[in-house]
Amino acid sequence: MEPVTQKYSGKDLYFETIPFEAGDGFECSLIRVKGYSAASKGPILLVHGAGVSASIFLAPVNKNIVQFLLEEGYDVWLENWRASIDFAPNKWTLDQAALYDHPAAVKKVVEITSKPNIKAIIHCQGSTSFMMSVVAGLVPQVTNIVSNAVSLHPVVPDFSRFKLSFMVPVMKQLTEYLNPQWGLQAPTLTAKMVNTLVQLTHHECQNSVCKQVSFTYGSGFPALWRHENLNEETHEWIKGQFAAVPMTFYKQIARSVKEGHLMSVEHKKELPESFVATAPATEARISFFAGGKNLCFLPDSQIRSFKYFDDLRQGFHALRVLPDYSHLDVFIGKNADKDVFPLMLQELSVN
């Protein structure tokens, strides 16, 4: 495909979409972003969370994470895995992403760049599923990882635990997906019921998708960001950034929350049932980032995962708790280029 040119902060960025086939034949894609100057630091892969797409890293702020990495000399790649809203809704699991999507994406980046090793920034369910690949030894080419929000130990607020335990089984009988777009258009009776519930209980702003996102993903008002960390344009932009998430995901994360760590659900021989039962099959250095005010996955999620890895190799990995940030504002916050990205750069620079 021919590269697409877009302007960010008045500068041209070039987006080249590269389709790739996951291990089970699912059609995913990579987006290679170029601009500013020639890459000098090698490839870095950015992996989005559930129910969004690779464009979540391109927030309309003064300098988003893609621009920041380009200016620092990285060859930036964005992965659209099967959870991306750029694809038709599908009943994905973290197992599928870990076994089929991420290893194929890494292999494709290595193949095209001819670089034997790459780095990665992974977020939310992109982080959990990618860490499953890491622990299982499926992405040995990845040597340095920045993980945001959650990795091996999902810890959620009490009300989220209640929703996972009691509301998810009910919702599975009514719908195959939850969709924050229901705040704009509720096409079914279930969608209308959910939207009514959200409108009755969420009064933190006038953005109907923002409120749906908080209901869908956490327990806060809002759950995925602090409003004061977003500029007005970004708060409006998020209306188009969230869509369908399958109940198959909620079933898996509910089990993992109950067990206290990630659990596989599809019984594939390449993946362990428990991802903390044996030592991780990786030499990668991992930096665990957590928003101190995260109401989707509590900071203890990353603290526990860091302690797990630190016990195995003391002093090698890193933990960064960001006291004034939540979940996704770590990337889309108006001041993240000053508060967060330089810290990520420091961790990525450690060999």
Automatic annotation (TrEMBL):
Molecular function (GO) terms for this protein are: hydrolase activity; oxidoreductase activity
From what superkingdom does this record's organism come?
Bacteria
Q: Which cofactor does it need?
A: FAD
Q: Which family does it belong to?
A: Belongs to the GMC oxidoreductase family.
Q: Where is the signal peptide?
A: none
SUPFAM superfamilies tied to this protein: alpha/beta-Hydrolases (SSF53474)
- Identification of the protein by name: Alpha/beta hydrolase
